[in-house]
Amino acid sequence: MNHVFLIDPPESLHTEKDTSFALMLEAQRQGHGVHVMLRGGISRKPSGLVFKTRKAVVHDRAERPFKLSEWQESAASDFDVVWIRTDPPFDVHYLTDTWLLSEAGKRPLVLNAPQGLRTINEKIWAAQFTEITPPTLITANAADFHEFLRDHGAVVVKPTDGFGGSSVFIVRSGDKNAAVVFETLVRLSGYVIVQKYLPAATEGDKRILVLQGEILGAVLRLHGENDHRNNFAAGGSANAASITAEDENIVAMLRPHLTNLGIFFAGIDVIGGKLIEVNVTSPTCLREMQKFTGENLAKKIIDAAARAASGA
């Protein structure tokens, strides 16, 4: 099979911890063709979809991990699987990629499904599951924000389109910076996510990877000494994690929705047994998870993709 990875420029990837790179390594190990496509590499011609790609040979090493061919243009139908793995934000470029890839039909198989990617905002979508999420307010109204803050005493405030822990604040009742934090985030993203602060966040947040609606594995992300954010991009560290009955219940509630939306591979974030976010654009933490489990989880993902692409 031939796999195309729509990714950020290869030289920007931290391959030692990059999930896309782990998937490329495994696809290559299994004898599949690995190809790289960058943003802007999709064209819709009268004859159909065309991809501009480079064939890749990948090596699990710090120096020159990629060996890339010259650019070549091929019909999208020449490939079996397309992985949408560009990092957030979900901007107009990302949206246009999903529109174009929606025309792919059954070949190539696009993972995750473009319709699902358009439907799920990683921070807003989870709020509908009120039984398994902390109290959540989504608003651009300052009065609503201050009332919610008074009711809960301490809240986490973040933009609707942030990623990697960027612009995430803890605000407590009486904090004189509360108003300016809210105003700044409204200017940044229009609407703001406000969630009741969970003290369990001091113990880290759990990233659970979900493959075709089933739990693949988990890792605990723990913040550094001088930061409250647990994200790896904000300096958090990886720790071993186990799956609890609460985790299984969360995934069971999400499963039919993810399946119906064509979400093949997702990452969910859990704090204190509560769902915080559902990550579908470019779920990460696979390599950290594999280090703790000693299991080749990438093989399970590539195997599942191959089965799905072949209709098995």
TrEMBL record:
What cofactor(s) does the depicted protein rely on?
A: Mn(2+); Mg(2+)
CC terms in the record's Gene Ontology section: cytoplasm
Keywords on record: ATP-binding, Glutathione biosynthesis, Ligase, Magnesium, Manganese, Metal-binding, Nucleotide-binding
Query: ATP-grasp domain spans which residues?
Result: 123-306
Gene Ontology MF terms = ATP binding; glutathione synthase activity; metal ion binding
The reaction(s) annotated as catalysed by this protein in its Swiss-Prot or TrEMBL entry are: gamma-L-glutamyl-L-cysteine + glycine + ATP = glutathione + ADP + phosphate + H(+)
Note the superkingdom of the native organism. Bacteria
EC annotation from Swiss-Prot or TrEMBL? 6.3.2.3
Please report a single Pfam family linked to this protein. Answer: GSH-S_ATP
Q: What class of enzyme is it?
A: ligase
In what pathway does it function?
Answer: Sulfur metabolism; glutathione biosynthesis; glutathione from L-cysteine and L-glutamate: step 2/2
Question: By its UniProt entry, which Gene3D superfamilies does this protein fall under?
Answer: 3.40.50.20, ATP-grasp fold, A domain (3.30.1490.20), ATP-grasp fold, B domain (3.30.470.20)
Q: Which family does the UniProt entry place this protein in?
A: Belongs to the prokaryotic GSH synthase family.
Do you know which PANTHER family this protein is assigned to? GLUTATHIONE SYNTHETASE (PTHR21621:SF4), RIBOSOMAL PROTEIN S6 MODIFICATION PROTEIN (PTHR21621)
HAMAP family annotated for this entry? GSH_S
Per its record, how is this protein called by name? Glutathione synthetase
